[in-house]
Backbone:
């Protein structure tokens, strides 16, 4: 089913990339109602973030568990089943065909409304990084292959660079969610991201959801920073 937000803020995912649950709770308190989804990744998961995820879900917030699962089929399947029981809105896994098929089957067996998002190529990587890792070819070629494999596996959406949204949309059609990290408001530092775009440009390119972390977390007023991005999303979506 294509993603249909009721408000532009529902298209903004705030990455809670902070070291402690206490800091994450402060970020949530400062931004609640200004963003649509809170993303919890490895750093926070290993510091008590799963308990925080459960509290946020119980309070009505949408949670994105960014765990990037990749393992043997049975382990991926059991991981998906365990995550589905927690009730988050989104879960990531790496876009390897066997892992995706196992995850989709486990989700179907679990029921619920969990959306599986497959990560094509990390936005911190470029062609040189792929070569160093032993891959032949360029980022765009690998992203295209994995997008087609994700569609065939029945994955709900893809995580990809905003630079690759338009070509991926041509491959997967209108019904898969495209979620883009590597989003930086104009004037923000790219940090360790190598394939970036502004929020407005990412929406105009066809992205459904945007992941933003440091530009909000490092802002003097996190709510104002989030609201400015939501305004840019709204303007671009018109």
Residues:
């Amino acid at each position: 089913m294509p993603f249909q937000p009721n408000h532009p803020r529902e298209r903004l995912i705030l990455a809670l990339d902070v070291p402690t649950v206490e800091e994450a709770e402060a970020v949530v308190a400062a931004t609640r109602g200004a963003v649509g989804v809170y993303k919890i990744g490895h750093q926070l998961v290993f510091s008590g973030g799963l308990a925080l995820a459960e509290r946020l879900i119980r309070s009505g917030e949408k949670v994105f568990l960014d765990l990037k699962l990749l393992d043997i089929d049975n382990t991926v399947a059991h991981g998906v089943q365990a995550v589905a029981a927690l009730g988050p809105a989104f879960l990531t896994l790496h876009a390897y065909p066997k892992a995706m098929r196992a995850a989709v089957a486990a989700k179907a067996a679990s029921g619920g409304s969990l959306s599986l998002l497959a990560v094509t190529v990390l936005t911190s990587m470029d062609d040189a990084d792929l070569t160093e890792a032993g891959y032949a070819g360029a980022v765009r070629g690998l992203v295209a292959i994995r997008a087609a494999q994700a569609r065939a596996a029945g994955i709900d959406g893809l995580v990809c660079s905003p630079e690759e949204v338009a070509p991926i949309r041509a491959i997967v059609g209108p019904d898969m969610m495209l979620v883009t990290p590597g989003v930086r408001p104009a004037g923000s530092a790219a940090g360790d991201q190598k394939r970036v775009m502004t929020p407005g440009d990412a929406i105009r390119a066809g992205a459904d959801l945007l992941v933003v972390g440091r530009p909000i977390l490092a802002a003097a007023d996190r709510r104002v920073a989030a609201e400015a991005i939501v305004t840019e999303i709204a303007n671009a979506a018109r």
User: Anything to note?
Assistant: The chain is about 45% helix and 15% strand. The chain has a mean pLDDT of 91. Residues 42-58 form the longest helix (17 residues).
